[in-house]
Amino acid sequence: MDKIDISIRVNEDVFDLRVEPRRNLADTLREDCGLTGTHVGCEHGVCGACTVLVDGEPVRACLMFAVQAQGKKIRTVEGMACGGCPHPLQKAFVEQHALQCGFCTPGFLMLAQGVLEKNPNVSDAEIVDAMSSNLCRCTGYHNIIAAVKQARESMKTGGSA
Ligand code: FES
Ligand code: FES
């Protein structure tokens, strides 16, 4: 299959790549950009481990072709920390013990970041609803929800969780 030249912006970097049209964004991020923080679980849109932000919207990277990312702003878990300081969500996940094996964590972080950026006053019920779209086999979700609530409060006050 003929490859296509694309240029994608991920976090603060631009990657000029040559990819097959069928190559998905998750594989491109991991294998072509070297950004292995985006995890791949089911590869068919169910688990959410591959969630990244595309122009601020949480998107399953296994369901998006890399060529569709041209011209869009992609954010991955590698771009969350700022100047060596963890993002309030990352801090809250640690403090609330919101991970065990951690495989699902990058997807949850990106999902939660998208939700909190879109609506800083998101309700508890809306957080539960939003987080239910991703799968975690370890935590039972209680601590993930607690972490997102903690980050919601700290992001409102501009604090660091
Ligand atoms: Fe993309 Fe599971 S790997 S949703
Ligand atoms: Fe193990 Fe979520 S922490 S799958």
Instruction: Assign the structural class, choosing from mainly alpha, mainly beta, alpha/beta, alpha+beta, or little secondary structure.
Output: alpha+beta
Determine Rg (CA atoms, Å). Answer: 16 Å
CATH class of the largest domain: Alpha Beta
Query: What is the helix content?
Result: 25-40%
Order of strands side by side in the largest beta sheet? 2-1-5-3-4
Question: Could you tell me the mean pLDDT?
Answer: 96
What summary fits the major beta sheet?
5 strands, mixed
Summed up, the helix count is 5
Bulk shape = globular
Mind telling me which CATH architecture of the largest domain this is?
Answer: Roll
CATH topology of the largest domain: Ubiquitin-like (UB roll)
Small-molecule binders here are:
FE2/S2 (inorganic) cluster
The number of strands is 5
The overall number of domains is 2
* CATH homologous superfamily placement of the largest domain: Beta-grasp domain
* Uncertain stretches: none
Q: How would you describe the overall organization of this protein?
A:
The protein is α+β, with helices and mostly antiparallel strands and 161 residues long. It folds into 2 domains: 4-79, Beta-grasp domain (Ubiquitin-like (UB roll)); 88-157, DNA polymerase, domain 1. Helices cover 33% and strands 16% of the residues. Strands 2-1-5-3-4 form a 5-stranded mixed beta sheet, with helices on both faces. The radius of gyration is 16 Å and the shape is globular. The chain binds FE2/S2 (inorganic) cluster (2 copies).
Furnish the topology, listing elements before pairings.
Elements: E1 4-10, E2 13-19, H1 25-32, E3 51-54, E4 57-60, E5 73-75, H2 88-95, H3 105-118, H4 124-131, H5 142-156
Parallel strand pairs: 1-5
Antiparallel strand pairs: 1-2, 3-4, 3-5
Helix pairs in contact: 2-5, 4-5
Bound molecules: FE2/S2 (inorganic) cluster (2 copies).
Residues 99-104, 136-139 line the site of one FE2/S2 (inorganic) cluster.
